[in-house]
Amino acid sequence: MKNQQNLKNKNKNLISSKKVIAYKKISISSNEWRKYLSARSELQLQKKILIQPRTADHFIVKAGQFFRILVSHGSQVGDLNIFNLHNLNEKFFSGKTRALYGTHLSTKDRLWSNLPYFRPMATITYDTLDWYGYDTDGASVHDVIGTRCDPYTNKILNKKDYHYCCHSNLLRSFIKFSGINKKEAHNYIHDVLNVFMCTGFTNNTKQYFMKASPARKGDYLEFRAEIDLLGILSVCPGGNCASSHSSNKAKCYPLTVEIYNSLDLNNSKIKKINISNFKEK
C-alpha cells in the first residue's frame, strides 16, 4: 500500500500544469471582415430548397454566393457535408476545422478542406444562435465533434436496421447527384458540421452528449462560399436531438436552404483563396 502511494505521488509530478494551444486560430483581418459585412448587407434571394425530415438533398452554391440553413418550420438539427463542386475529392475537413477553432463553430469561423488542398471552403458570416455561447454543462451549438448518426453504429448498439440515419441520407443524395456507385460513394461521405445541434462532453466520463437544440423557427446559420460548392444537408431523424436519434421516434421538421447573390461591390473584393502550395518531397 505504501509503495502504491509513493508511486501515485511520483506520477503526480508527471502531470504538467502548462497548456499549449496546438494550433493558432487562423483569423480574418479586420479590413477583410468589413468586406464580408458589407457584402452580406445587400443580399438577393436566388433559390430555396426545402428538405423534408429524415431525408437529404443537395444544393449548389457558386463562389461569392451566400447560403443560409434556416429553421423554417420548427426546432430541428441538420448534418452538413460540403465538396468542391469541380473536384469531389476536396471536401470538408471536420477534424482540422475543430483543431483550429474549437468544438463548435460560429461567426467568422471557416470550414476548411481536407489535405492536400487545405483551404477555406466557406466562411460563417452570421449565426442567430451566437448568443448561446457555452452553457453550464459545457454544451454549445453547431458542433464539429459528432461525426453523424449512422446505421452501422446503430446496428451494434440497438440490434436494429434503420435506413434514415444522416449517413445514409447523405449517401443517397450524393449518389443521386454524382452517379458514383454506392461502394465508392461511401468514401466521399465525411464527418459533418452538426448545424443547430447542442452538444458537449460530460465532465466525469468525457462522453459525447446532446441536449435539446435552442434553435427555433426563424433561426439560421449563414455562410459565404469561397469556392464553387456542392452542399448536401441531411435533416436528422433525431429532430432537435432532445432524446434520441437513429429512429422514427423524434418529432422532426423540414429545414430550408436559401441561396443568395450579393449585390454589394465589396463582395468581389474579398480575397480568393487557392489550394495549399505546399509540395511533398
Give a quick rundown of the structure.
It contains 6 helices and 13 strands.
Notes on the structure:
- There is one protein chain.
- The protein has 281 residues and is α+β, with helices and mostly antiparallel strands.
- It has one domain.
- 19% of the residues lie in helices and 29% in strands.
- The chain is built from six helices and 13 strands.
- The strands form two sheets. Strands 2, 4, 5, 8, 9, 10 and 12 form a seven-stranded antiparallel beta sheet that branches.
- A hairpin with a 7-residue loop joins β6 and β7.
- The longest helix has 13 residues.
- The radius of gyration is 20 Å and the shape is globular.
- The mean pLDDT is 96.
Uncertain segments are: none
- Per DSSP E runs of 2 or more residues, the count of β-strands stands at 13
Structural class: alpha+beta
For the CA atoms, what is the radius of gyration?
20 Å
How many domains? 1
Task: Compute the average pLDDT.
Answer: 96
